[in-house]
Amino acid sequence: LAPVAAATGAVDRVLPAAAPGRAVPRTLDWTGPPPDVAVDLHGNGPPSHRLLAGLRPRRLLAFAHPGTPEVDGPPWYAEEHERERWCRLLRAYGIDADPRDLRLPRPDAPSPAPGAVVLHPGAGAPARCWPVERYAAVAEALRARGRRVVVTGGADEADLVARLAKRA
User: I need a surface site. Which of 35, 84, 99, 155 has the fewest CB within 10 A?
Assistant: First the structure.
């Protein structure tokens, strides 16, 4: 998501973090002074809290977890919708955020698929994945209305993307 974060114009630097799957990396490539603000977007857990706290930021924005009582933040609700969750995190730190506001600034680079509707069927946890059949139904309905549909996914989602493309 680094290109998306950079396109917002709100991020000074994205630190590449390599780890298998959704694991938290052991270290970050940071050689500068402590950052003013670090935001834990990995989720809710001590590994990412400790990794970011090790940078010694002035402020660490994160959800609370009993395994890291030194990190203060709002509670994590597992069943909460992602937009609600992340906007609630920001609001807890005095940053106005509206989960209904989905606007992003238009990137400078042209779209590789102008006018297309993008479907991304993957999720970090299988329990959060919508069934492929439902995505296929959405894709079919969009195409019936004359829309171009593009399916995206990461390397570990290639099978899922292929199944959706075949069904749609």
Answer: 155
